[in-house]
Specification:
The complex is a heterodimer.
Chain A lengths: L1 E6 L20 E5 L5 E4 L4 H9 L10 E5 L23 E6 L4 H12 L15 E6 L8 E2 L10 E3 L2 E10 L2 E10 L2 E6 L11 H7 L4 E5 L4 H6 L8 H10 L4 E5 L7 H17 L6 E4 L5 E3 L1
Parallel strand pairs in A: 3-4, 4-5, 5-6, 7-8, 11-12, 12-13, 13-14
Antiparallel strand pairs in A: 1-2, 1-15, 2-3, 8-9, 9-10, 10-11
Helix pairs in contact in A: 5-6
Chain B lengths: L1 E6 L20 E5 L5 E4 L4 H12 L8 E5 L5 H4 L14 E7 L6 H8 L15 E7 L4 E4 L2 E7 L7 E7 L2 E6 L26 H18 L4 E5 L4 H6 L8 H11 L3 E5 L7 H15 L5 E4 L5 E3 L4
Parallel strand pairs in B: 3-4, 4-5, 5-6, 10-11, 11-12, 12-13
Antiparallel strand pairs in B: 1-2, 1-14, 2-3, 7-8, 8-9, 9-10
Classes of the chains: A alpha/beta, B alpha/beta.
Chain lengths: 297, 308
Amino acid sequence: MEVTFWGVRGSIPAPGPETNRYGGNTSCISVRTGAGRLVIVDMGTGAVNLGRSLMNTEFGAGQGEASLLLSHTHWDHIQGFPFFSPIFVPGNHFNVYGAARSSSMLEGILEGQMNPHFSPIYTLKNLGASISILAVPVDDGKLRDLSSATRRRAPFILDGLLVRALPNPHGPTTSLAYRLQEDDRSLVYASDAGYPAEGPTEAMLSLYQDADILIHDCTYSPEDRAQRLSRGFSSYLEAVDAAVRARVKHLVMFHYDQDYADDFVDELQARCRAELDARGGKDIKLTAAAEGLTLPV
Amino acid sequence: MKIRFWGVRGSYPVPGPTTNRYGGNTSCVEVRPKNGPHIIIDAGTGLRRLGKELMQRDAFGEGRGSSHVLISHTHWDHIQGLPFFAPLYQSGNQLFVYARQRDDTHLRAVFATQSEDPYFPVPFNATKADVAFRELVEGARFSLGPVQVSCTRLNHPWIAMAYRLDCDGASVVYATDTAPFTDILLENEFIKTPPRLGDPNPEHAAKLHAMRDGLVDLCRGADLVIYDSQFTAEEYRQRPHWGHSTPDDAIAICNAAGAKNLVLFHYSPERSDDAQDVIVDEVRKKVEGTGLGIIAAQEQLELTVGDD
């Protein structure tokens, strides 16, 4: 499988020349499985450009099908949804998975985004594509086949991927981290992770364990994180700690603060590399996610 | 008074090198009268940078700031910057938010929804500034100190408001989002498939006519008319029910009203800077010799009208 980054920014899109290199769009990645299936994780404004590129494929002809995994429903993780062109094409089908106590509650949250006070779409029913919205409650360790399960609990098999999901603390709420595994390859997406002082739980570390790629929240510099602990984000220190303890092969920095210019992200990347080396992670590859970047897993 | 543009884009913010010159932030305009209160029109993502600057520039950083925020309508691209407006999180600051009254929901509830769990981590009632909401009815007129404000409705899904500010011997109109007044009446009903253009039923035609008259009156003799210029003619033909105009529609209203300058605004998110340059050149050629000035809004552009 391979992963492509469409939006790498946190909180709110940050247009301007100072974000041209890493990109100013909010969180969205796409995963193309070895078997050719498409899985999208989060739907920030990066989803606009992803949607545009998909219109040249079967999605433009109304013959596309993809799964959308949502880490949580803060705006920067769903605000691209109403502008994702393939959802307006009849014939396309999307399975949307996200954190909520029930599927109808998740549907209500996404329905609220389309409310006529806020959006000219008025309701999800006006989207052309068909959409199934399914809650992903907490991971209970028992594997199910989604096609037969009535209650969807992670882990599950999705588009040929083994999917695990566990919530990380994120300020007043939680954010799901996803592990996507195809054969012996694994990709982890852990954005908006606001760990307590002791770091991620053992269960979460087992979800990260030995991942070929760990895409990890790196919203803040350590200095800014210390000032804004209650917001529930990581700096590269927390990302390095998670990567080293879980023995991942490749750490990808993600979800930069909206006020961080490209040059500062360069600096954070250099500091992150030094921290990895100092913490016994010399063999861990490091990449700072940028819009348009594709990495093989 | 001074008018400064912080966000000029429609629909959604568009970061990236192809929008660096005009800017990728959604709608937000700052008005600083020479002798009057601070005014902000619309609260798209451009509001975030304005908020950062206000915390440095004026009394806002010390919790003595006050601003009047006029909202055209509450579609995302006109309000999504408000939760990121730094003065909101400084106690002592005051915000007065104005928008059209709705039948079903109080304005405060509409804004509170944007900031509530599970969409945003800081609920609106936890912000530190004092925020008061004032709901406007059709044709409302009111004063903000020496600034006279008037408004009229526009042709847009769920209805948007245009505002006129008179102060310092000058006048500025902000008119977005609106479709032209010839084809489809856009109100509360969802229109899935657009009807044939140029043929509204008589009842709708009468309402559209009255709406256009109201807008022309609002723009009468204005020094600046900041106007929805989202579409090309071809884009309008494809999506007339989206509620946006072309520069030609803007020119027609300005000419009917004897306005002095048209400010092109609320550009399509799909428009690159180079493509927008071509459109601006065409518009300038079209009005050459007519006396109507053309200004293309871009982020950080500051205009001065009247006493300064």
